[in-house]
Structures are given as C-alpha cells and as structure tokens.
Design goal:
The complex is a heterodimer of chains A (294) and B (353).
Chain A (H helix, E strand, L loop, with lengths): L1 H30 L6 H18 L4 H22 L9 H23 L16 E3 L2 E3 L1 H23 L1 H11 L1 H6 L4 H26 L5 H5 L3 H8 L4 H26 L3 H16 L14
Antiparallel strand pairs in A: 1-2
Chain B lengths: L13 H5 L5 H20 L2 H26 L7 H17 L4 H20 L7 H21 L1 H4 L5 E2 L4 E2 L2 E2 L3 H23 L2 H11 L1 H6 L4 H27 L1 E2 L6 H14 L4 H28 L2 H4 L3 H20 L4 H14 L5
Antiparallel strand pairs in B: 1-4, 2-3
Helix pairs in contact in B: 2-8, 3-8, 3-9, 3-11, 3-12, 3-13, 4-5, 4-6, 4-11, 5-11, 9-11, 12-13, 13-15
Classes of the chains: A mainly alpha (294), B mainly alpha (353).
Chain lengths: 294, 353
Amino acid sequence: MDLIIVLVNGIAVGSIYGLIALGFVLIYKASRIINFAQGSLVLFGAYVVYASYIQLKFPYIIVIIFSSIIVVALGMGFQHAVLRKMIGKPVISIIMITIGLDYLIKGICLGVWGPTRRIFPGELIPEISLRIGPVFISNLFIWGFLISIFFLAGFSIFFKYSRIGIAMRAVSNDQMAALSLGISVNKILIYIWAVAALVAMVGGSLLAGLSILDLNLGFIGLIVFPVIIFGGMDSILGAVLGGFTVGILESLAGAYLEGIVGGGIKGVAPFIIMLIMLMIMPYGLFGTKEVERL
Amino acid sequence: MALPRPCGNFKRSYREDEAIFKTGFVRASVVIFIVLLSLIPLVANDYILYVVNLVFLAIVGAHGINILTGNTGLISLGHGAFIGIGGYTTAILASRGLPIWVTLPCAGFMAAAVGLLFGIPSLRLKGFYLAMSTMAAQFLMEYLFMNFKGLTGGAEGAFVDRPSVFGMVLNSDAQFYYLALVFAIVSTFATINLLRTRVGRAFIAIRGKDYAAELIGINLFKYKTYSFMISSFYAGVTGCLMTYYLSIITPRSFDLGVSIDYLAMIILGGLGTVRGAIYGASFVIIVPELLKYGIDVASDYLPIFTQIPSAFPAIRMFVFGAMIILVLIIEEKGMAQIWINIKSYWKLWPYSY
C-alpha cells in the first residue's frame, strides 16, 4: 500500500524532472553547450508565473502568455547577446558563462522576491483527480505526467518532420556544415533557448506547486544532471525515462533509507545513482557514444 | 636594476629557457613585491588583513585546482569537498590536541587520498562526464560531513583553536597573515616548479590529447591520479589553514558553491597559468568584499538598500554572475590573457604595425 504511494509520487516528480532535463538536452543536442543555468531558469519561470498571478493579479490566460513571453525573451536574449559571441570558443569558458547566468538569475530572483518561502497558487492548474484503488493521485501529479508525455511526443515529431526541427538536428550534427548549407545557426540556437526556457518554466511551476516556492528550487534544478547522465546526454527519450527513474529511486530512498542512514539521503541518492551509472555506462541508456580520433 | 636588453628570444640553453626568473629584473621585482607584501600588516587595518588572508588561502587552493583542471584538463566540480576533507581532518586532529605540524601534512595527505579515490574514474570519464562524477563526489562528501555527527559535529560544526607556530599562538590577523603569505608564496613556486618537471610536462601533454600522450609513453592512469592527488593535497592544505583561520568549521563552508567559486577563479584568471590562479583568487574574494563596502556606503545616501532584505546577497550574486559573463566575453582566456594583451599593446604603441 505504502509502496504504491511512494511509486506514484516518484513517477509524478520524475516526470517533472524529465521535463526540466528536456530543456537541457535540447540545448546540449543543438549546441554542445552544457547549460548549468537550467536550474535557475526553472526558478525564474516559477517566480514569473507566481508574480504575474498573485502580485500583478492578471487573469488566467494572460498569466500564461505574459510569463511565457518574459521567460522566452530571457532565453533568446541570452543566446543572442552572449552565447552568439562564444561560438567556437573553448567549451569550458562557455560552461562558465552559463554558471555566470545562473548566478545572475538567482541574484535577480533573490533581489526581487527575497528569501521568503511562498506558497505557489495551486488553482493555476486545472483540477483533475484520479483514484486508483485506494490511492488518491493529486492533479499536479497527473498534469506533470501528461505534460511531459505531451512534450516528449511533440518534440519527437517536431525533430523528425518540421523544417526547423531538421535544421536543429543539422546544427547539432555539425555547426560548420549547417552554416554552409544556409542555416542560420544563431537563429536556430535562439529558438532552442526559447524552448528550453519555456519548458523550464512549465517544469518550475509544477515543481513549485508540489513543494514550495523559494530559492531552493534552483538547487533542485541540479537534479537534471543525474537524469541526463542516466538517460544519455543527447536523447529526448532518455531525458524522460531518466526523469522517471531518478524520481522513483529518489522517493524510494526518501521513504525507506531516510530512517536507516539519516536525513538528507533523499537529496544525495540521485547523485550516488549517477556515480554508479558513470562507472558502468557513462553514456547513459540512450546517449550517443563519443568516438575519439587523434 | 632594469638594464636594457635586446628584444626577442635569446635563450642559449634549456636551463635558461626553463628558468623561473627569466631575467635579473624579474627576480628583483618579485623580491621587492614580496617585501612590500610583508609590510602590509604595518599599515592595514584588521578588515583589510582579513580579506588579504582569505585571498592568500584561496590562492593555495586555486593553484591546486589549476593543476588539475587548467594543466591536466580534468574538470573538477568537487574541489570544495576536498578542501572540506582537509578542514575536517584538521578539526578532528586538533581537537585531540595535536599541533599544526601534525595536522597540516595529515590534512594534505588525507585530501590527497580521497582525491586519489575520486580520481580513478578519470581514466574512463572525460570532460563533462568527469565533471559530473566529481560533482557527485561533492554531494556525497557534503552528506558525510553533515551526517557523521560524532566526528564532524554535523550541521552546527566544530570549533578549532588558533594554531601555535614556533611557540607563538597566532591570535591576531597580522600574525596569521605571515603564515598565509608563506603558504601562498611556497605554493606558487611549487606550482611553477612542478610545471617544468617531467610530471608537469606529462600533465600538459594529457591536457593536449590524452590518447596522444599515451602513445608517446605517458602512463595515463599514473599521471591522472597524480594530478588528482597533487591538486587535492593543495586543497587539503587550504582547508587546514582555512579551518585554523576561521576557527569554526561547518559543512556549509564546503558546499557546491565553493567548488564553483574555485572553478570560477581559474577560468576567470586564465586556465593553466600560474598568474591566472592568483588573479582569479584575488578577483573572486575581493569583488564581493568591495561590493559589500560599496553597498554600505551607498545605503547612507540611498535608504532603499536597507529596506530590501537580503539586498547584499542578491546584488553580490547578480554582479558576480555579470562579471563572469563580461570577463569571458571580453577575453575567453581570462584575466592573465587580458594582461598579456595590454602589455603587448603598449610594447609596440604607437607604431603597432
């Protein structure tokens, strides 16, 4: 009985993790940039939704449109103003730049909203409730699950058939070759950052709805790393499956190990799993193996 | 004396080319610089000394991660935890009444041993994957610091007395300043020297391309683990001194943010350059302190700063992030390269073509 609740919890949280990791994977796939700012994009997205609903008191539809525009503008602006200048520069410098962005966004969030813990408005998310036998599943869980599946399917089709999706795959394959075929690499990367920011906003709102909205949400964003290591850095399916796995293992660890080895194991467990995964199959379940030539 | 010398490269032997001080002028200016540094406690107040001490300690740690990440090319996100190992070793041994002569090497070697353990995956993992495994090590060790309450004191931490050196207890900042200065200088020269030995050249070859290095006969396993051990040894020494200096040790002072700070130091300063580690360490420590000072001054005139809670941490994070982005956009090789660019600009000015 207890086990079922733990599992359902894990699947729901895991689907949100998968959603957040999806944004990361998209950026990595297209530009080979490791985006350390994904966690703070999650944080920022959740705060913007919160602010436009509670503080600015916008109606429901406007909240969605308004916060999407803000978040997308941030993602696009960062690619266009900063990362565009770093094309062809050492990868480690680019990683550091995303760490810089991470600090920048967290600074903005802390400055504007302060360190107070806020309760995220649950009524933003339409009510669906489901009862499987004795287990009652709350609507946030269902929405998290549905939205992840929707994005997974959507992106798979998008990458396969749409013109921009194909251009994105070309960019991820070889930026120089894509350039010479007449694809504007910067433009494609701008779209990708927009999508990543949007996905982060949705994931952030769901995650904030499940727990509480404060700066710690940005650190929860670090969970994308175990997720993508598990599923493979450049696989969308891997991100979603990795999200489920990490979510389930995390909530299992929280439910059964917390009493044995002491508090905090829930937060560490995903990273221990990641360490083990790195030892046995570093490229994850679906990641492309990197082949090195001299 | 700054004698005029011919421009260009006129080295006649490898020994000359590899010399730490290329000319007498460089040697003289380094000596003068060190003498000037050792005079600072006579003029500075306690607050400035505190900041400078932190800079010196950070320089030791920054050299450590620079050997690993800058020179061997292995990205580490776990440096903070290695510093923590050194710190906790010190705290545990010092609480048993052992002097700094014992705790300092123990802290170094303990950190090196843990570094060795987490260095082993580096044989298989590269780049980002290695960064992730060191990040996992970071979280794992943070967890251990938190939960081995019997040894570490858990979240509340533990207190450590100031050490006594040559029978003198280093109670004031000025006294500790000289200890920190000695370690900053020794670690700087040790790093310069390491990089021109066989081991250091092997590291640089591995950074170039590890397979290629293996083909010319460099034992990858040996040198990668060496690199982890040496880097962690520096981290352990930093942790030991830091614990003695701050007199308190908590898991919070070794979290992921610290690891990122150290990585930021060397990337902003200039990866793989000894100067870069010094510039970066100074930058990362001094900028927040300057900001704090600036906000203190500004809040006298603009009361808005005192009304917003947590204005300082917010501005600190924002400015720190903006500075990282700015420096790297201007020059992706960091501040050491900016300095070289400025120098070479003035060398030929105004006839630069």
